Each structure stands twice: as C-alpha cells, then as structure tokens.
Amino acid sequence: MLGILACRSTAGSQRLCAAINIRSAWAQQVSIGPLRQTGLTFQYRTYSTEPEPKKPTNPAKTGFVSRLLSSGTGPATSVSSFRKIIALAKPERKPLLTAVGLLFVSSTVSMSIPFTIGRLIDFFSSTNVQIPFGLSTWQASGSLLIIFTAGALANAGRAYLMKMSGQRIVARLREQTYSAALHQEVEFVERGEGDVLSRLSVDTSIVGESVTQNLSDGLRAVVMSFVGLGAMFYLSPTLTTLMLCVVPPISFGAVFYGRYLKKLSNRTQEAMGEMSKHATESLSALRTVQAYNAQPQEELKFHERVTHVLSLAKKEAIASGIFFGSTGWSGNITILALLGYGGSLVSQGQITVGDLTSLLLYTVYVGSGLQMLTSFFSSIMRGIGAGTRVFELLGRKPAIPADTGVVLDANRRGPVKFENVGFEYPSRKGVEILKDFDLEIGVGESVAIVGSSGSGKSSIQALLLRYYDPIKGKVTFDGQDIRELKIDSWRDAIGIVPQDPVLFTGTIASNIAFGNPTATREQIEDAAREANCEFVWGMPKGFDTEIGRLSLSGGQRQRLAIARALLKKPAILALDEATSALDANSEHRVNDAVDKILRKRQTTCLFVAHRLSTVVRAERIVVLEGGRIVESGTYRHLANDPDSRFRALMSEQLNATNAQQVIKPHTSESVPEPVVVKEKDEEVEEKEEEVSLPDKK
Ligand SMILES: Nc1ncnc2c1ncn2[C@@H]1O[C@H](COP(=O)(O)OP(=O)(O)OP(=O)(O)O)[C@@H](O)[C@H]1O
C-alpha cells in the first residue's frame, strides 16, 4: 500500500515528501541512531535525557511551561534559559515572522494534497464528479500547477529565512560566548571547568537551531496534526474516530521505543569513542609502546574495548529487529483494519474511493505530525539544556572583574610590594603555595627568584599579573593595592616573558605586536632590535615571515617574547626563564637582551631564574622555599656564604646540567657584577655593534 509521508530527516534540514511503502513509513516515524545519521559522532553528550541537579521548587507555584521545562533542567534556570532563547530571536523578528507566514502557505498547499488526490481519483473513476468552479481539466491542472509551485516557493523562502536567521543568531551567540570566555579568570578556562570549546561550537548551534528550525518544525507539526484531523473528520467522522483509537497509541509507542533505541545507539557511540581514544593514545605514543614491547598489552586493552562495542551493537541489533518487525506489523494491521472498515463504508456508498484514499493519506500526515511534535519538545529541551550552558558562561562574573577599578596611568612608576601574601590555587584549596610572603622591588630594580621546582616561583608572577588574587595580604604598586586597578590598565604596565612563549598563527611582526595592534613597523623593529632578534633580518621575508613555517629555537622564541614585552614599554618586566638549557650562543643573546633592558630602562625586573647566567645579572636574589623567602641578598653575598641555601641550590642545578661545572666560592674578583641601572651607556652600543644588528633606518 502506497502512501505519502511527510517526514523530516534527523539532520533537521530536509523535508522529504516521498511515495513510500507504508510499512517503512511506520518505521521511519522514529529516528534511530541519529548521531550516526547526522554525522555528529563526536557529540556524545545528551541534554534533555540526563537531568541536571534540580533546584527545590514549589510545584504549585510553577506553571505548565515550568513543569514541562523542569523535566530537563532546574525549572528556574530552564524558564529563564527559555526566555533568553526567545529573546535571542528578537533581532530576527522580521525574517522569522515572514518565514512563519511562508510556512503557513506551504503547509496549506501540502495539506491540500491528500484531498486533491482523492478528488482526482474520484474524477477519473466516475463520470458523475464535476471539477469545482466549472473549470476545464486543463484549467484545473494549470491551477494545481500554480498552487504547487507557489507552495514550493514558499517552502524554499521559509527554509532560507529560517536557516539564515538561525545562523545569524548562532554567529552573535558565538561572538558573545567567545568574548565572555576571554574575560574569565584563567583557572576557569584552563582547567576545562568551563568546557568553553563545546559551548562555543556545539551548544551555540543547538540553541540557534532550537529557535529557528525547531520552531518551524513545531509549527508545521501542529498544522499537520490539526488540519489533518479536521480534514479527516470532514471526510468521515466514523472512520476518523476508529483511526484515532488505533494510530496515536501505536505512534507514541513507536516514538518511545525509538527513544530507547536512540539511547542504546548513543551508548554504542560512546563505547566507540572510548575505543578510538585508546587507539589514538597508543598509536601516537608508538615509540614508547615499541620501546617497552607493550604491543600485546595494548592489543588486549583494545580487544576489551572492541568487545564492549560489539556487545552493545548486538543489543542494538536485537532491539532494532524487534522495532522494525513490530512497527511494520502493526502498521500493516492498522492499514488493513482501516481499509477493511473503510472499504465497507465505500461499498455502502457512505464515502467514495477518493475519500478513503484521502483519509489514509491524512492518517499518515497526522501520525507524522504527532511524531514531529514529540521530537519538537525533545529538541526544545535539548536547546534549553545547551542554552543553559551557554547563558551560564555569558552571565558568569569572572573572579577577576574586567571592568572595575581605577585606570592606571601608563607613565606611573613605583615599587612593587608583596605584603604578607598567602596564596592557594582555587583548585587545590587548603594547599598553601605562598605563606606570609613579603617582597619589595624598587623602581628599576632587578630581582631574581630562585628555588627548587614547585617552590612557588611562577605563582608569584601569576599573582603579579592577577591571574589569581591572594587569599591573604596584598600586592601593591606604588602603594596602591593592584586589586583597585582596572585589570587591563594594570596588565598594560607589565611585560611578560613566559617559560615557554606562545607564538600565534601569523607573521613575526604580528606576533611581536600581539596585544599592540596599532604598533608601527618601526616600533616593532626597534623592539626586535632591543631584544636581539637579529635572526629575523636574516629571513627572506623578514618580519613578514609566517610563524607557521618556522621552526624556532627556544632562545629565538624567548627573544621574540622579550621583543613583544618591550613593545609595551612596560613599567615591570616579568621574565620566567625556561627550565631547559639553551645553547651557549642563545643564552648569550637572551642575556645580552636582558642586560640592555636593565641598563637602558627604568624597568622593574622580576626574574624567575633557573640559569646561573641570569641569576648573576640581578641586583638581588631571593631564595624561595616552601612558599616563603628563606634568603635574600646579592649574588656575591649569597654565593660566598658556604652555608647558604642558594649555594646548595645552585650546586644542585649545576650538577644536574653540567657535571663538570661545580660552583666554587667566589673571590671578589671572580664574581660577575650585577647589572645596575645606568643612563644609556656606551657599553650597550658596543655590544650592538659586536652582533651587527641592523641599524635603525
Ligand atoms: N594552576 C594550578 N593549579 C593548581 N596547582 C598549581 C597550579 N600551578 C602550579 N600549581 C602547583 O603550585 C606549586 C607551585 O608551582 P609553581 O609553578 O609556582 O612552582 P615553580 O617554583 O615555578 O616550579 P618550576 O620551577 O618547576 O616552574 C606546585 O606544587 C604546583 O604543582
């Protein structure tokens, strides 16, 4: 038995109107394994089916919408999320309303198809039936062609407007989410608490789809179900009542069983994800696997995961078999029952063959409409689940607020002071990294912090940059608590050279000008010259060389990072030295760049130092142990004290990096002089000549 089924693929993009076997029509009413069908195999998370913790609520006080929404997330969040999703559509009011108008036109045309087919069958099978309005056959055919073309055009317009509105909403939402993520405190993003990337890509798409595509499908489903039912009652109330007793229960049964199948399919997908994760991990570490002859072990682990996938797939196969068998069977039986009873009504002359055909077609429309309605609600729930996550990020107040505080004057200079600072990482509450930490660094002074790995050196810099705030005490600049300063103006005052400088996609020039988009080429070159980046001039494309094609050494990366920091003309330079050793030449070039900074500028320098050659350059050295300063003094002072912790620490490090080089007590002649702040002097110019850095034009 042939019927026309209006069904929608789970990809949510295509409407298929096809003459298909009624048995498969029943089977198609539920979507099976939609993740696989849509190609979204990476998206394992489900939204509506896994309720998030619910907030206690008084059910008596919540309305229908709240109760409906509360099945997925906490009612209050869901309702506000629902409102926000609707609010998102406001700027798209015009195209969306036009699309809804077009939807009614196209739905009216498609809902008239079963009726038209019935009339056509009656017209061709009987001589008594007249064409309405006294039209000739050609005129009627022409009118139908015009009506169907208008319906198709309306449908095309609706699809375009809905799609574009959805995409514009997603684009706006993505930009807002990205901006919100960039302004969060680093902990939130870096530790993956925010799961920012999935909110940015997947969740925003789901939200956009739920305001446009789902809304359109929901409206179409309402039209299909109600208009279909109305038409059926008009054609034959008795047959429609019989149909209503049979079709909706079977339809809903099929939908719910389909959901069970979908869950099974999701579990299979998850297991497959685990399997691929394992394979990716061991294949990407193939050298280690082979070095330890761990292939049999890895094969066994992979076998366990494959077996798990197989057992789930078997369950899914059995469930699918039952599903297709039973839906096909019940569909055929229902059609048979309707045909049997309908046939008897035809033979009694109560309805025509055309009416019966129209009725059967409307039955399929109504069944399909009901299925679309149930999936409409679950899509809305999915949209709300995703929306809650997106709006949570959009509405999240960063722990370090971006828009409060006084703007720091770019020319202000003053000492940096850590006063009785206590600090622990938010993710490791109770573990104090810094305890009663006191340190003052004068204007233009250079201080090197040394200490064993994990003693808290980098944490001091993290506090200086306000990636975190201390839990006790304060950090001040020129006597003012840095928490009172507007964060961007404070960070503008600091040039940071991290342990492992990050270079972004783009040219060398754009990397030096990172955060300084208005810097001129001359300023960029000056900064590079000052940071001893002579290697840039040696490249065929110079500052326009794309970073992606380069393989830069650690020293070169550090010098580029120094240039980037210098371009800001910072009041404070915070340099976190790489722990890994640089070759002698690179080390010399980095240190020479540092020397130039120390000599030329009134820049306060805070080094996290690992290399002796850097340590000696600082005017003062502080030794950190267990989050406290245990020693402080000049290099000469500390190195000459045979019992100093500094000596022990440096000996350990030297022994580790160079077994030959053992630190000896220095005589006053052999200790290198720390670099003290001077006015611009000749020595620097000499050095610049030595390395033949390109002259400033
Ligand atoms: N983001 C973080 N969250 C939680 N703990 C952290 C974080 N960063 C560092 N820690 C911990 O804080 C302690 C101090 O780390 P920090 O990086 O400041 O030490 P460090 O002296 O700079 O070490 P290294 O010389 O190895 O770079 C360590 O125990 C480290 O594991």
From TrEMBL:
Compartments it resides in: Membrane
Top-rank taxon: Eukaryota
Any single GO CC term annotated in Swiss-Prot or TrEMBL for this entry: mitochondrial inner membrane
Entries under Pfam families matching the protein: ABC_membrane, ABC_tran
Domain ABC transporter: 416-651
Transmembrane regions: 96-117, 137-161, 218-235, 241-260, 317-339, 359-380
Main location, first listed in the record: membrane
InterPro entries in UniProt: AAA+_ATPase, ABC1_TM_dom, ABC1_TM_sf, ABC_transporter-like_ATP-bd, ABC_transporter-like_CS, P-loop_NTPase, Type_1_exporter
Positions with biased composition (Acidic residues): 682-697
Chain positions covered by the region annotation Disordered: 660-697
UniProtKB keywords: ATP-binding, Hydrolase, Membrane, Nucleotide-binding, Transmembrane, Transmembrane helix
One GO MF term attached to the UniProt entry: ATP binding
Domain ABC transmembrane type-1 stretches: 97-382
Listed GO biological process terms: oligopeptide export from mitochondrion
Membrane topology, record value: Multi-pass membrane protein
Family: Belongs to the ABC transporter superfamily. ABCB family. Mitochondrial peptide exporter (TC 3.A.1.212) subfamily.
Protein name as annotated: P-loop containing nucleoside triphosphate hydrolase protein
Species in which this protein is naturally found: Rhodocollybia butyracea
